[in-house]
Hints:
The chain is mainly alpha-helical. It is built from 10 helices and no strands. The protein is 80% helix and 0% strand. The chain is rod-shaped and about 200 Å long. It starts with a helix and ends with a helix.
Amino acid sequence: MALDTTQSRQSFIASVTKWWYRATSPKELPSDAPFQQREKVRRARTASWILLVVIILVLSPLPGALGQHQLNIVGTLLVVTAIDCLALFVLNKRGNLVASGLVIIATIEAGLLGTIFSLKGGMSAVNLPLFDLLAQSEIVAVAMFAPGWVFVMMLVNILLIFFVLHSGALSPDLLSLMSQQGLIIFTQAAEIQVIIAVFAFILVRSADIAILHLDRAEKIAELERREIERQRVVEEEKQRLDLAIEQILSALQSASNGNYAVRVPVSENNVLFRVAYALNTLFQRMSSFRQQQAQLQQAQQAQMENYNLRMQLQEEMRNRQELARQYEKLQQATVQLVENLKAGTLPRRKSDTPIDAIVEQLVSRSDNEISSRYLRE
């Protein structure tokens, strides 16, 4: 229950703070914006709280002035408050820190001087603490300007204190005290301005240096983070590249062994997808070329077989024609032989057929018979 209450309170404070910054200061810049711009926004946010405190301090005498019916003081306080609100909600919101700071400092100085010079009977020793309120301008200067401007406001305040203490706006009792302890009174009032200026300068300067170092540390950390991220991306790219090269080498090895059906995976993870796509196209063309070459060889083989078959057919046709001629000659020789035998003679011309052998045998037999007949005779 206590934890829930604390979280609710923190959430409420965060919401109020966010609303306050949105109403009184420039928009928050991204972390990668230049340091000077982000520092300007930070100072504007710091100034918004300081201006709120200044407005509260300006309004704090208002109840007493109303109770005493001091309408001139009431009017002065309301005018100063309106000017401070203008500086807060308009100038500071737009990031015009210099203009806003000058307006606030002017209202602080003018308001205090107006209060001092409007005191009835003059400024008495009781009103000396009013000089301490001049330190407000130093706080505004150190917060909204460069830290060194606090010493300028310190000198201005010391001069104003000196001017007031030596003016005619002092009461008789303070004049009497000044004649006796004027240097001490002035020194004490000036010391407060010096102490506040020195401490404010040291604190703000230290804070600025710490913020600058923090910003540098954040930049270094961001650079280290980016470098780590870059190295991680490079390592991932290297792994993807190694995988892609391994896939390509594997595909080339398979292709060198004659397997042109292999393909290199083409995907978003393959950083060499263009090379893979080109190799796949090459493998596809080589595979198509091999198929065309095989088809061409088959066609050439079929053509050669057709040619051999045609030559065999032609040879067969020639053989048949030759056989037909031989048969015709044989038939003619046979007819001639029969006719010669009927006439009692033998063919005297050779027919270049097997009939020639028969004729030779008949001639030999005829000669033998004639020889035998002659011997018998």
